[in-house]
Amino acid sequence: MPRRTLLLNPPSYDNFDGGASSRWPATREIESYWYPVWLCYPAGMLPDSQVVDAPPHKITPRQVVAMAADFELLVLFTSTPGFANDCALAEAIKATHPGISICFVGPHVGARPRASLEACPAIDFVVHKEFDFQVVDFANGKPAHELPGVSFRGPDGVVVHNPDGPPIKDLDSLPWVTPVYKRCLDVSRYNVPFLRHPYVAFYTERGCPALCTFCLWPQTISGHRWRTRSADDVAAEVRWTIDNFPGLQEIFFDDDTFNIRKDRVLELCEKLKPLDCTWSCTSRVHADYETLRAMRAAGCRLLIVGYESGDSQILKNIKKGATVERALQFTKDAHRAGLTIHGDFIVGLPGETRESIRRSLEFAKRLDTETIQVSVAHPYPGTTFHDEALAQGWLTDDPMTDHAGHQLPNIRYPDLGQKEILEWVERFYDEYYFRPRVAWRIARKAIFDRKERRRLTKEAREYLALRAKRRAFARAPNS
Prior knowledge:
19 helices; alpha/beta; single chain
């Protein structure tokens, strides 16, 4: 019999969305949670396994330690901001249940396997990059030294690194994650402010050919080789999801980038249109109007778009592979097609100045997307941005988050300090959302929709509380 396996997105800071499928590990401005998609693939191949997504389900470290007694293998998805907390949890589990094997997965341990094993004696092995079959094979009895892409301690205590295996080619051979959600998770607990509630998220592909220097996932987990599921397989999972989650309002395709190739998008739209469902997805700014119109006709509602910056030189510095002009045309085309856009921006990227941030802010106003998110630039281990920050002396010894898991800058430029980076994040939000047209857009939702009114009131309270904390940080000495 396979080892009974617990796949864990661990408790950490309150409301911390830091593992599994969170692409920007942090406690966000507004409480929100993404699905632990990565953990659910091996869980789908181990019928007796259990996925525990602690943050949205409000499961405490003490409860996790207690439930670990029922398992022989723990697979914990960790992140750089949460790693120290995750190590403390692993130590507590190992002390209470010494017979359990503990595996850490995720971008942090993939980028720093030796340092991770040396930092936490409770970890038995880590897996670099994709970990689906390594976890399943170990649970089925194969030893760690026979698994590709695994690091572990040898008999003499020296860390051994097995060579990485090739990325998974046939994604249709993987199980669907939605039956695992049905078995293990309460979908009502997953909330993202710009998605309809309740929603369900899964992938239609893995990998991203883009070379953005800051982007964590393609550089540490999914890779740059783009691999896709067949349109038939995606449509079949969509149909199963609709049938098995009554009251579902939206499906989100949480790919690195959904619309990389036009012919595939059009094929997917052809399969999705008869299902009559509402869906949203990630997007780059390269999609043309014909593609966007087809997506809208097939039920697409919203696009998450990583604009990152409105400064041409910053886009070149991060190898975004996009221009300001193309982003403007794309946004115009998307709105013309009837699509809603959530725009992502980053403050503090390489080469950032007060002037470049101002250009980004004015660019965002010109785009006038329905919602935005403004993040602090973080050079995560394993990314080109991290290597550059280290080489240039921009990286500080400060933590990425405060005591509650909210983002803090850990980079400092000659003419742009940490305090000012955080101040610009606040200014970006204030100037964008406190424009009359945007304020009315939000107020109109609250006036005419009771559910939206409750949600917006809750979000406003959470954001204002975080804003006060950030201002306190900015006033602190030596920030």
